[in-house]
C-alpha cells in the first residue's frame, strides 16, 4: 500500500537521486521529498535532524555520499563527515521518527581477495578511505537501532552523472585507442535499475520489519573494466580500440578491489527485485547518453 507514504531522498543531484526523481512521477500516490545539497548539505551535520524531522518521512533513502574515491585519500575528514557522521545523524533521526532508512553503500567495503561473489555476511576489509568511511556509516546505522537496511551496490552508472560509461563514450570519440584495466572484476549497475529496486524495497512490508540488515544489489553478470569498455565501444559503434592493461599500469591514489562481485540472492528472495544482466541494461542505457557533441 503506497497511499499516504512519505519518502525522503537525499542526494537528489547524484545519478541515483536523479533516477529516483525520474521514476517518482510513476508513483503519484507517494509524497516524495527530494533534497539536494542546497536543501540538506550532509557535511553540516547539525542541520540533518531538524530538516528531516520537519518532513517526518516514513522512509528515508540516503542516496547522498562522498564518492570521489581518489580524492578521499587526501580529503578523509570531509569523506568521513558525509559517509559516516551524517549517516549516524540520519539513522538516529530515523529511529526517533520510527522511520525506515535505506542506506546505500558500496562494494568497496571489501578488499577484493575473494573469488566468489561476496555475501552480505562476509567480513568487510576496505583498503581505501572511501571504503572505510562507507563501512563506518554502515556500522553507525546498524548501531543506531533504526529500522531499515544497508544496500550495497557496485559500479553504478547513469546518463545523469559522471561515471565510467560516460567517460568511455567521451574518450572513444576523442581517441583511436585506450588502455583499460583488465584485472579488476565486478558487476556494472545501471542506476535506473537500482532506483527501481529501491522503490520496490521502500514499498515492501519486509522493510518495515527489518532492522539494520545488510543486502546487496547489482546487475547480474560479471566483467572487467576492460570488458565493459570494449562493450561500450562496440555497442556505440565507436572506432576506438581498447587494450587490456594491469592495475599497476594505471596507478591511482586509492586501491580498488580486484574482485568485488556481490551475491544478491537474499535481496531477490526477500524483496523480489529484478536484476537484469549488465549487458542488457547497458544496451538500454546507452541511448540516454549524449553520443554526439551539439
TrEMBL record:
InterPro entries the record matches: dTDP_dehydrorham_reduct, NAD(P)-bd_dom_sf, RmlD-like-bd
Keyword Oxidoreductase: yes
Keywords linked to the UniProt accession: NADP, Oxidoreductase
Species name: Gilvimarinus algae
CDD domains for the chain: dTDP_HR_like_SDR_e (cd05254)
The reaction(s) this protein catalyses: dTDP-beta-L-rhamnose + NADP(+) = dTDP-4-dehydro-beta-L-rhamnose + NADPH + H(+)
Function: Catalyzes the reduction of dTDP-6-deoxy-L-lyxo-4-hexulose to yield dTDP-L-rhamnose.
An annotated Gene Ontology molecular function: dTDP-4-dehydrorhamnose reductase activity
UniProt-listed PANTHER family: DTDP-4-DEHYDRORHAMNOSE REDUCTASE, METHIONINE ADENOSYLTRANSFERASE 2 SUBUNIT BETA
Record family assignment: Belongs to the dTDP-4-dehydrorhamnose reductase family.
Protein name (Swiss-Prot/TrEMBL): dTDP-4-dehydrorhamnose reductase
Gene: rfbD
Note accompanying the cofactor annotation: Binds 1 Mg(2+) ion per monomer.
Gene3D superfamilies the UniProt entry points to: NAD(P)-binding Rossmann-like Domain, UDP-galactose 4-epimerase, domain 1
